[in-house]
Amino acid sequence: MADGMLGQRLALLSPLALLVGALAMPGEAPAQCRLCSTPTTEVTGEGLADSMRIEVQARLDFDQIVVTGDNGGGTARLLPDGTTSTSGSIGAIGGRAMVGTVVVRGEPGRLLLVDMPAAITLYGRTSSGRIRLDSLITDLPNQPRLDSQGMLQFRFGGALHVDGGVDGDFRGDVPITVDYL
Questions:
Q1: Which pairing describes strands 112-115 and 119-124: parallel, antiparallel, or unpaired?
Q2: Which domain holds residue 99?
Q3: What gap in Å lies between CA 60 and CA 171, rounded to an integer?
Q4: Distance between CA 117 and CA 140 in Å, rounded?
Q5: Is residue 38 part of a domain?
Q6: Model-level pTM greater than 0.85?
Q7: Residue 23 lies in a domain
């Protein structure tokens, strides 16, 4: 009879142990595989309001410059409105010269600080020559602000200084920094 009693106790404890085990089990486990869900590169959370994106829509391009003298230097100017002018031994700027165009996207209505360098050096691709781009100018208002859609577009140009006898295709980067005020 003692064995029968022990069998009933074990029989009663077994369903109780299963019930406690079922209640102690956690809910559905989150996916452990990073490849199981679609990854995202978007900023989420609190930092989203402060995010900003800068996109260069058109590069500043002086196209071709016609130098009329071998020994004298000159300056080619390209303003944000597309106006060109030359001085010194530079006779003309090519007809396909383009101002730089930048679009900034961010939080609507925010004031911005846009910073561009005072001058940069452009380096020749095939020669060891260098030319200087300075007097960078934009068509930004005094206090640039993102519009109600969170966008601001501006154009920029500058003055390209060529010292006599330089020939070739020259390239360089114009670093543009934009911050919220």
A1: unpaired
A2: 51-173
A3: 10
A4: 15
A5: no
A6: no
A7: no
Report yes or no: 141 and 61 within 8 Å, Cβ to Cβ: no
Query: Does a structural domain hold residue 118?
Result: yes
Q: Which amino acid is at 175?
A: P
Burial 116-134 (b: 16+ CB within 10 A, else e): beeebebeeeeeebebbbe
Residues 139-158: pLDDT tens digits? 999 999 999 999 999 999 99
- Which candidate, 56, 57, 112, 101, places its Cα nearest to that of 78? 101
Domain count of the fold of the chain? 1
Whole-Å CA distances, 172 to 46, 88, 133, 137, 158: 36, 23, 9, 17, 13
Residue at 107: amino acid letter: E
Q: Are residues 150 and 112 in contact, defined by beta-carbon separation less than 8 angstroms?
A: no
> For residues 62 and 160, what is the distance between their CA atoms, to the nearest angstrom?
8
Q: Is 124 helix (H, G, I), strand (E, B) or coil?
A: strand
| Nearest Cα residue to 76 out of 91, 98, 58 | 91
**pLDDT tens, 30-58?**
444 444 455 444 544 445 556 899 999 99
Q: Is residue 152 part of a domain?
A: yes
Do 146 and 107 form a contact (C-beta atoms < 8 A)? yes
